[in-house]
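For practice. Supply one:
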Amino acid sequence: MAALAAAALLACSEGGDANGAVAGVDGTAQAGLDSGGPRFATDGGDPANDTAAASADGGGARGTSDGVGRADAVAINGNCDFPPTPKPGDPGAPCASAGDCDSGYCIEGPSGKMCTKTCSDCCPTGFACTAASATDPQFICIATLNALCRPCQADSECAAQSAGALCVDTGPGGRFCGGNCASNADCYAGYDCKNAKGTQGEGKQCVKSTGECACSPKMVIDGAQTSCTLSNDAGTCKGQRKCTTQGLSACDAPTPATETCDGNDNDCDGKTDEQDAGGCLPFYTDADKDGAGDANTPAKCLCKADGSYTAIVGGDCDDAAATTKPGATEQCNGVDDDCDATTDNGFPDTDGDNQADCVDPDIDNDGAANAADCAPANAAISPAATETCNNVDDNCNGSVDEPGAQGCKPYYVDIDGDGFGKTPPAGSQAQCLCGPDGKTSALQDGDCNDVVGLINPKATEVCNDKDDDCDGQTDQGCDDDQDGYCDAKLTVVDKPIVCPQGKDDCDDLNAAISPGQKELCATNVDENCDGQTDDGTDAQGCEVLYADNDQDGFGAGVGQCLCAAKGAINAKNNKDCNDKDALVSPAKPEQCANGVDDNCNGAQDEEDAQGCVPHYSDPDGDGYGGGQESACLCGPNQFFPVSKSGDCQPKNPEIGPGAQEVCNGIDDNCKNGIDEPGAKGCVVYYADKDGDGIGDSSLNKCLCKAEAPYTATSSGDCDDTKAESKPGATESCDGVDNNCNGQTDEMGADGCKVVYIDKDGDKYGAAASGACLCALGGEYNATKGGDCNDGDIAIFPGAQEFCDGQDNNCNNAVDEENSIGCVKYLKDADKDGFGESAVGKCLCKPSYPFTEFTGGDCNDQVATINPKIAELCDGIDNNCDGQIDPAGADGCSPFFLDKDQDGYGTYLAAPKCLCDAKAPYTTAVSGDCNDNDANTYPKAAEFCDGKDTDCDGIVDPKGALGCKNYYVDLDNDGYGGNSISQCLCNAEAPFTTNKSGDCNDGNGTINPGAEEQCNSVDENCNGQTDEGAAGGKNWWLDDDGDGYGTGQPIQICNGPKPPWSATKGGDCNDKNDKINPGAAEVPCNTVDENCDGNVNSPGNAIVYSNDFEASTTDWSTGVTSGSLNMWNLTTKSGGTSPANFGSKVWGTPNMGSSGTEKSFLMSPVFDLQGGGTIKFNTWQSNETGNYDREYVDISYNGGSSWQIAIDYTNPIWSPQKSWQTVTMTVPSSLATSSTRVRFRYDTIDGCCGPTDQTGWYIDNFVVTKTCN
C-alpha cells in the first residue's frame, strides 16, 4: 500500500510537520452542506451523487487496490462506516488542511478533500486501511475509488486518481472511469464488478448497474469530459460531453443527416458532397462543349462539375455538333436543330404535309404550282376553282364575284331605296348578283310606288288616304266601328277622310267607346279611352269613400267620389284618429297605460278604462284614503292619488294604518287602541313591592308609563319584602347577606383583613395561602406572606442566595447570576459550541444562551457560522475569518472570462470557481471564439461579414444574413438559370453569379442583358424573339385584334407576332375591339369609343353628320306629285356659287321648263331619344309670289307620318343667295329613336324656264343628341 499512500497523502500538515495530516490538492474542500455542515450521502455510496467529501454504503466487505506494493493493507468485513452526519472534524467532513480534522488527517476523496480516520482493520467501502506514508506508520482509511464515474478520454486519466482504474466504454454516451475491484463487495451499492475494456487495458472494474454516471462538483471544477457519438440511419457522428454546473452535457455531436451539397460532411463518413447528395444537380457529358449534355449518356447527380460531366442540361441529340442542342434556333433546313424530335417545327406548313412551306413547291396542295397560283397558300383558290360570292377572285381570272357566281341572288332595281323594287315585266328576270350594284339593290319586288320610300309591301298601313303597303286598299282598319275616330293602335296623319273625329279610339270595334264618350260606374269599361275603367271622381253613379289604411272600418282624411272601393279607399266615414293602427277607432274600448287614445274621443286612459284600479282621495297625503271618495282609474290623479284605504283620520298625516303606535295618548295605527303595551317609546317596568327601586325580575311589562305594581325599571331583588336587601348593596362584616349573593360575612366583606398560613414557623406564610377575612382563626395565623418554601424555616423573603439549586430568597429565581459559587459562561445563542467573546455572565451552571467557555463566534444567531465551519457560497463569513464567499468556497461554480460581455466566455482561459459572477468572470457558458467581439458567440446569427460569428468554425456560411442568391452560370456570360441557386455571401463555384434569368445557359450570347437580333432567337430571354432588334418595325400590343395597339411599340424583325400585331397605337381599351382611335363615337353611353379623351355624356353627342363629299347612299329622293324628281347631288349651288363645304351638295338646280312638280330629299333614320338639334346649311333662290314652295318636314316614326317643321312659303320666302345655317331644336317629349327629316320642294306655276330662279340647296347636315 506504499504506492497508494504516496499517491493519496501529502506532507504532514501543509508544511510536513509531525502531525501526519493529509493535505488536499488545492486546499479547498469540495463538499456540500446538509443541516449546517458537510455530510455523507445516504444514496448507497455513489460518489457522483454525494454532497459530502466521501460516501457511506452501510458497511460490507472492504478491500484495497492492487499494486500497492505492500502486504499489510487490510481488508476487513464489518460495519466500519464514517458517521452518517459528520460534524466538522469528523471522518467524512470536508477539510482544507490536517488541522481541520479531529484525526489530524485530511485526504483526497472522491469529491474533494475530506477528513478520514485512523484504522487497524476496518474502513468503509471504497476505502482501504493503509499506512499514512512511508515515514508515518499510522494506518488511516484511504479512498480507493476517487475516479469512479468520471467522464474520461483515456485510461491514464482514471489511473491518475485511482490506481488500476480504466476508462470504460459505455456506448454512444461516452467513456467513464471505473474502479479496480475483485468482486461486487469492492464496489459501491448500485455498481457491479464486471470485466471491462479501457482504451489500452482491460480487467474487472466497478461500473454502474443501471443508468448513466452523473457529474460531481469536483468533476465540474476539473472540466471532466468524454467523447460520444450520435447515430441514426444516415450515419454516426462524434462529439463531446462535459461536466457543467447543470450536470453532464448532452452529446454535442451533429445529428447525422443525408449528405447535402453544402461543403460539409453531413453523414460523418469522411467524405464531402459525394454523388447523389441532397441538392445535387444532374450533370451530363458534353463532348461538343455547347452547354447541353449527350441525351444518350445517363447523367450523374453531382454537387459540381466533375471530369467530363460538365453540363447541367441534357437532351443534346447530336453531341458532336455544337449548333444542335435543346434551345437552339430551329432553321428551315431539314435538320432537328433544337432536338425536340421534330424537324423544321415552327415554320409554316400550310397543307400539313410535314414539308415546310419554304421548301414545298405546292404550298396549298391544290394541284397548281406556286408560280401559277394567284393564292399559293390557299387551296380553295386556283385557276380551276369555281367563282363564288366571297369577295375573292376564286378562279384567278382577275375578276371578283362576277354576275352568275356560285351563291348569287336575284336583285331588283330599287329607285327609292326602301328595299323593294318593281316587279319585272313579263319575259324579263332579275339580275343574279353577289351583292347590290347601284340601284339594283333590292332582294324583294312588289313596290307599287318606287319613288316613295315609305310605300312598299312591308310598310305599315297608315291612316293618311294612301295605300302604304301596296295591297290595293287605302286606310283599311283605321275606323272599324265607324264612330269617326281612328284606331289608337294605328298611325294617323292629320284627319284622313275615314276618321273625321281624329284618332286614339281605344276599342275600334265598339262605337260606344271613344275619346268623346262619358265614363260610367259599374260597367268595368273604359268608355272615354283614358286608360282606366270606372275611374276618376264624379263619374256617373260614384260614392264618396275614405282611405282606411288599417282596415278597421273607419277612414281618415279627404274622401273621393269613386265608382267602387279602390284599394285602401273603402271606408264610408273619416272618424279614425289613427289610420295606421287597427286597434284604434271610435269602436274600440279605452285601455289603461298604453299611451294611446284608443276610442278616438280626444282623451287617453280616462276613468273606468279597461285595466283600471280603485283610487281614493288622500287629504293628509299619508298614502291611505278614508274610503268615502273613490274612482276606478288607470293611475293616480290629483283627486284620487292613492289605491289603499282604511285611514281613520284621513286629514291627519301622522295617523293611518301604516303608522306605528307611539306613546302619545293617540290611536296612531287606527287599530282602536291608545298607547297599548309595546308602543314606540315604551319602557320595561318590574314589580317592586318593597319600594326599594329594585323589582322582581320575573314580573315585567313594556309600558308607556308605570302602572302599579310595575313601577321599578331595575330588577334582581332577592327579597322584595325588605328594602335593605338588594343587588348592589355592600357586604359588610355584620352577619347579614347585604348584596343578595346568598352568603353572610364572606371573604372580602367590608372591614376584612389579609392573613396567611405559616407551617414552618418562620413568621411568613405562603403567598398563595393569604385571605381577607372578617376575623383570624383556624390555620390562618400569620400576617405576612411570600414564603416560597413553607416547609423550610431557612427559606423566606430576604434570605442569602447560594449555588445550591434552590430559590433561597423567594424571588422566583434559582441560582441566579452572581450567586455564591458562580462561574463565568459566554453567550452561545446559536448553540454551535462557540460563544461571543465579549458577552458573558457569572452563573452557577450553563444557562442558555450563556453555555460556552470558548469564544470567537462572529455571528451568534446562526449555528453554521463559527471558526470551525467551511466557507460556503451564501454571502456570509461562515468561518469568521473576515472573508465572505472567497474563491473556491463550497458550492462555487465555474465562471468563464467574458471580456466582451456577450454572455459567452472564452474557452482559451481556465474558469474560476466563484460563488457569483465577478467581472470579468461573469458567465457560466463557454465557447466564445472571439471574446473581444460582443457579436461573436455560439449560436449567434451568422452575417456576411467575413467572420465566424457563431463560433462553428465556418465563416460566412450558406444562408447567412445578408446573403444573396447566386446561380450556376455554365456559359460564363454573367447570368444563371432560374432553377438552381444558393443564398451565399460570395460567389462559390458553380454558383458564380447573382443575376438570373438566362433562358439558355449553354450559349454565352443569350441572357437578359443581351441585345436582341433579327434572327428568330430570344437573345434577351424575355419570352419574345427579335423584338426591338435593329432593323425591325414598330409593332404595338393588340389584344383585341382591332388593328390598334396600346403602350409602347417594340421592334419586330418579321412581324407581326401576335399579340404584337398592330401597326398603329393609341388604343385606350385594348380589351374591346369596338374601342380604338378609328371607331365611331357612340352617343350618350359614357364610353370614349374613339380614344380622343372625350366622353360625350353628359353633354351633347353627334349621332349623324354628312357633308355629302363621300357616301350619300343613306339619303333618298322621291316624287309626291308629278313625274320629275328635282333633287340631285351636284357640285354647284345656284349655277355659280360653290358648295358650303367641299364640292358636293344636294340641290334642285335649274331643270329647264317644267310643270307642277313635287319632289323630296329624305334623310336616313337617326336616334334622337332625349331630344337634340338638327343643323344644316341652306342656299335658296326661287320665284317670289308663292310660285315655288319649300318645306322642312320631320317624322318621329321613321317616315310613316310627317309634320311640317319649317314652312319657307308662309310668309313667302325671299331669295337668300348666300349660305345660311339653320338649327332645328327637337324637344325630348317628341324625339324618338326613329326620327327622320325630309326636304320637300314644290313648283306651283309650271312655267320654270332658263331665266327662273336657280333652286334650293342643302349641305353639311349634322344631328346632335342631348345626353343627360
